[in-house]
Amino acid sequence: MRYTAKTISTATSVAALLGTLAFSLPSISIAEDASVIAEGKKLAFNKKKGNCLACHVIEGGKLPGNIGPALSIPGVAMKDRFPDKSKLRAQIYDARTMNPNTIMIPFGAHEVMTDSEIDKVVEFIYSL
What we know:
Strand content: under 5%
Largest sheet: none
Radius of gyration: 22 Å
């Protein structure tokens, strides 16, 4: 009888601990996501890195270009245009794989941005 009570007590304690952790983890994740998105925006707007504004309209950007499609369209999220985030990443890494005639810079293939920087830009663009 004591063994069963001790087991139940231990199981309850573990469950309470895991429940507490489950509530605290999303807040860390949300803060990290916001930080990554902010860094991605900085890279996307940076003229020596992403320079996305040279060709695309992006909300919050100054003097956007119109060579490429608008990335900020009211009512149309990038998640709708690219349901698979990996395809968006591939497009930014090297758009020539999907369209050999594109004029978009292959940011990854030409090492304009590192993989980590591309990932941050993807998170920013995907948040639009």
